């Protein structure tokens, strides 16, 4: 018997949280204003603005807004840089910000590169770059399978991923080892599909139950 696919929001705009740079509460801007968290939009970007990706966010802070404020305050006080928007996703340890022009972006990416955040329990180093690569793992559940199963190959996993999450095609997808052929390592270069996967981490492929672990460590 066929099983219905999980309901997936075909536009990633519904997953975003926009924070006002000068307010202690989230902005009241409608989520419908965003077509993509990384694409240009009339309200928040101009043709001169640039995106800087943030990685190595501290796992000890699970409040996106608190982390956003820490980054904003450090950049303004130390480097006199005021981003036009900051988005942090603590669950995957990464985020991005918009800055007014490519000169500021180049300064962050090429000169500053890293900054230290003062946290309640110490300090933490975060990094800036002009690209982002986030590793996730896809695990096919074999627990209740009594017979040998025909596992999908990495190309089939990629095709299913793009179909479900309608984001940018991941950079790569590979089975991690012959010992664990049901586990796949997938590398994404966009937040759009990752946020969609975070909202709907379970899906079926070849009638096999599958779960996505976003930004996980499988070492």
């Amino acid at each position: 018997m066929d099983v219905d696919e999980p309901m997936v929001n075909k536009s990633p705009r519904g997953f975003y949280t926009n924070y006002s740079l000068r307010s202690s509460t989230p902005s009241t801007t409608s989520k419908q204003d965003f077509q993509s968290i990384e694409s240009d939009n009339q309200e928040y970007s101009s043709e001169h603005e640039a995106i800087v990706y943030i990685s190595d966010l501290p796992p000890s802070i699970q409040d996106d807004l608190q982390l956003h404020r820490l980054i904003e305050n450090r950049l303004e006080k130390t480097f006199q840089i005021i981003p036009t928007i900051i988005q942090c996703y603590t669950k995957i340890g990464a985020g991005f910000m918009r800055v007014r022009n490519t000169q500021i972006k180049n300064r962050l990416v090429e000169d500053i590169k890293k900054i230290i955040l003062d946290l309640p329990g110490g300090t933490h180093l975060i990094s800036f770059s002009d690209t982002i690569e986030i590793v996730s793992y896809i695990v096919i559940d074999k627990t209740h399978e009594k017979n040998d199963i025909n596992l999908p190959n990495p190309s089939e996993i990629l095709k299913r991923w793009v179909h479900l999450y309608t984001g940018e095609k991941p950079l790569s997808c590979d089975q991690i080892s012959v010992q664990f052929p049901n586990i796949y390592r997938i590398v994404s270069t966009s937040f759009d599909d990752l946020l969609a996967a975070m909202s709907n981490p379970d899906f079926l492929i070849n009638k096999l139950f599958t779960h996505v672990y976003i930004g996980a460590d499988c070492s």
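The first strand starts at residue 50 and ends at 55. Confidence is low (pLDDT under 50) at residues 1-45.
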